[in-house]
Amino acid sequence: MARPEQMVGTDGSLCIVQMHFLCAGVAELKHVHSYGHWFHLSYGRVSLLRKGVYEEYSAPVIVWIEPNDPHHIIALMDGTVGCCILDTRDPNVTKFLDG
């Protein structure tokens, strides 16, 4: 399965991971973090697994993803763009970014 193109920007307190889903069906693989974060859908439509349920979202929308909640993002429209917004002051985020 194809994955979205990603760009990462960070400063002293935030990290933004932008995902560009070139085609419908492109997906960010199911994964889980020990920290919560925001998902901002700025363009397009996605099916987002969160809290064990897939829900469809259309831009613009911002969705909170709870810590330890497995999530999966599937583009439903070509050219969809979304961003995960992380608080880098959380030590668990820092560990994630360090690799």
Tell me the layout of helices and strands.
Blueprint: E1 5-10, E2 14-21, E3 27-31, E4 37-43, E5 45-50, E6 53-58, E7 61-65, E8 71-75, E9 80-87, H1 91-98
Antiparallel strand pairs: 1-2, 2-9, 3-8, 4-7, 4-9, 5-6, 5-8
Characterise this structure.
By secondary structure, this protein is mainly β. Helices cover 8% and strands 57% of the residues. The protein contains one helix and nine strands. It has a five-stranded antiparallel beta sheet, with no helix packed on it. A four-stranded antiparallel beta sheet has the order 3-8-5-6, with no helix packed on it. The longest helix has 8 residues, at 91-98. The model has no long low-confidence stretch (mean pLDDT 91).
What are its keywords?
single chain; 99 residues; mainly beta; Jelly Rolls; 5-stranded antiparallel β-sheet; 4-stranded antiparallel β-sheet; 1 helix; 9 strands; 8% helix; 57% strand; globular
